[in-house]
Design a protein that fits this description.
Radius of gyration: 18 Å
Helix content: 10-25%
Oligomer: single chain
Number of strands: 14
Strand content: 15-25%
CATH architecture: 4-Layer Sandwich
Distance between the termini: 5 Å
Number of domains: 1
Length: 273
């Protein structure tokens, strides 16, 4: 199983369009790993996790052939993860589409599509609504949702993906999980994990954990996964989904997280399991 990070930023991207903070000015000047598209992932050639406003840039940069995509698995309805405009181009008036696409996600995802008058049937797409308690088998891919702690008024999901005896946890856009989610994840073991650190070094509060995580809260989250038995001490773990407000300079993030044995995500990073 091959997982690639297509975007390592939170909602505003890095550099944020209008921002003149130190982080954004540095990213504009230096580029490289400090340029961050909105968060998303590809799994092998057939699965996308989220599909946001940087989809075109991501598919071109990383050679993603959307005609091979069988499914998009959404975490929640925020615009940086679900951009209805990019889905609209699957419509019959805009594109010739020869196969069905499966859309997985919590109810809020489909409510948003309805709000934008996007009927999945007219997009050659099949909607599959997830509750956060089931395990879905789609071909040889298992999709195991875990309830995230991100929005008070909408179900948001993290996921374990399993294929060919290998598995990965993708857990961005969440604060500290509720007990039910920790109990659920303890039933599974994964071969790699990508966890969230949106606020990283934001205002020096490294233990922030409400809706998102800051740097030390991310370390504690990793340690809780160890305690639950979901990962082992040698399991590869990376942090991802960085807001420019958290000052996510790649070199400073690597300096901080390396002391805890945690990698730092960047656009294009690959996990081969």
């Amino acid at each position: 199983m091959r997982i690639q990070i297509l975007g390592s930023a939170a909602a505003e991207a890095v550099p944020a369009l209008w921002c003149d903070c130190e982080c954004c000015q540095y990213a504009r000047k230096h580029g490289g790993k400090d340029l961050r598209r909105r968060c998303g992932y590809s799994i092998d050639d057939d699965t996308l996790v989220d599909f946001g406003p940087d989809a075109f840039w991501q598919t071109v940069e990383f050679g993603i052939d959307l005609t091979k995509t069988d499914r998009v698995v959404y975490t929640h309805s925020h615009e940086d993860h679900l951009n209805p405009v990019e889905l609209e181009w699957r419509g019959r008036w805009f594109s010739h589409v020869s196969k069905q696409l499966k859309l997985y996600g919590p109810p809020g995802v489909f409510a948003k599509l309805e709000k934008f008058n996007l009927d999945p049937a007219k997009l050659s797409a099949d909607p599959i609504v997830l509750s956060g308690t089931e395990t879905v088998c789609d071909g040889d891919l298992e999709i195991i949702p875990i309830v995230a702690a991100h929005m008070a008024d909408e179900l948001c999901l993290n996921y374990i993906f399993r294929r060919g005896g290998k598995s990965i946890l993708i857990a961005n856009d969440t604060g500290w999980w509720k007990d039910e989610s920790w109990k659920r994840v303890a039933n599974f073991k994964v071969d790699a994990a990508i966890i969230e650190s949106t606020f990283a070094f934001f205002k020096g509060n490294l233990d922030y954990e409400s809706g998102h995580l800051a740097a030390h809260a991310s370390v504690r989250f990793r340690d809780k996964l160890l305690e639950a038995g979901t990962i082992a001490p040698d399991t590869p773990v990376a942090v991802n989904h960085f807001s420019h407000n958290g000052m996510p300079f790649q070199d400073k993030l690597e300096e901080y997280f390396s002391q805890f044995g945690i990698m730092v995500g960047f656009d294009g990073m690959v996990f081969d399991l």
